Amino acid sequence: MDMIAASLPGQSTAAFPVETLRAQFSALAHAPNTVFFDNAAGAQVPQAVFDAVTSHLLERNVQRGGRYKQSVAVDASVADARETVALFLNASDAAEVSFGMNATSFIRLVSLGIGQMLDGARNEIVVTDLDHDANISTWTALEPLGARIVWWRMRDDRQLYIEDLEPLLSEKTRLVAFTAASHALGTLVDVPAVTAAAHAVGAESFVDCVHYGPHGLIDVQAWDCDYLVCSGYKTFSPHMGFLWGKKDKLRTLPTFREDFIPNEPPFKIEVGTFVYENVAGMAAAIRYLEALGQSVTSSAGASRRDHLVAAFDAIRAYEAELSRQCLQVLHRHGATIYGVSDPARASERVPTILFNLPGRAPGAIAQQLADHDIAVRDGHMFAPRLMNRLGLEMSSGALRISLLHYNTPAEIERFDAVLGALARSSS
Ligand SMILES: Cc1ncc(COP(=O)(O)O)c(C=O)c1O
User: Fold this and answer.
1) In whole angstroms, what is the distance from residue 311 CA to residue 404 CA?
2) Is the pTM of this model over 0.85?
3) Is the CB of 238 under 6 A from ligand 1?
4) Which of 39, 63, 164, 298 has its CA 20 to 30 A from that of 205?
5) Buried b (16+ CB within 10 A) or exposed e, 340-360
6) What is the mean pLDDT of residues 292-321?
7) Are 241 and 275 in contact (CB under 8 A)?
């Protein structure tokens, strides 16, 4: 049984119940020899998520808004999911949560609305060279509408510094678009600090939480951000996306809607039909996280939100230990690691690590790992600007391992053995 003593300063020292949790992910038992280290491209889902999706399809696979019991049940399920996602985000009002297909289409929806509101006085949009292109191109596409794009660039240590953002901000800044955690480098960004800097000049902040979702606690009220987007498939749910925005911001945002639809969130955002079964799956994924939190905390009478807080405290500590072990393995085999690479700084990142073996083609290494049933990703990670900054070719890019709390030290040992043999071989 793999148990890691989660012993980072200030965090729980309780052993993390990884095997109990793994037992809830049927896909892990279905492919017992596969090491899933490509979770940034999609997490496996716990049994409760399967059950929620299946129940929807069996019991209420109908349209909302009817008077019969199955349709009434869909309305109830969507309302429950909205409340549950609001809890996950610590939103003060569930109407601030909208459901849809994925993160990119939501970023586009918000950016198009902002594009329509641009005036000459405040037309600067700040983007970063750390982000997934979904949170860059959607904003640069506003240039024909009069936006001026301002780049907040990483320093040579591949980190974003608030001190570099501040001089870029002025009364001309409309919005700062950035990620809470890099899907490629695993870097964490200080969301409240970025938001405070944006607000200090009267600008808004847009947080891409797609990669951060399974790794850390989101708190839109403490963060005080203006918009935030997430994608279910990285956070133990099937494919779907959700957008959160401050209610007054969503109210003023121009969106497309049929003209009889109320000009109010969430209706003005959620035009058309979204995938109800996957939204039910997202709610079940959050309940799985609540149960995880409940299992690692002893405080009686804790609220659902308290359980989420406990879950992410435990996940952060356990994942930091996974990061530390992976970084040690990569160092041992002479890998070039892009991003925070010091094992002692593992708590400053999530266990998503971009690397290369010097002189070796990432695609060939990924294939050889795949031949040993170790699933990793190679390529550009949908981040052309980042590849450019790292001096990497779009056609080959780098290797990425991305772990979640259901991964284990034993899996890292297997990765270690196979990567070590590959690193020592001549081709
Ligand atoms: C950080 C980040 N932002 C945005 C996206 C795009 O998300 P979606 O596929 O839901 O549009 C991804 C996808 O991998 C991502 O990792």
Assistant:
1) 13
2) yes
3) no
4) 39
5) bbebeebbebbbbbbbbbeeb
6) 94
7) no
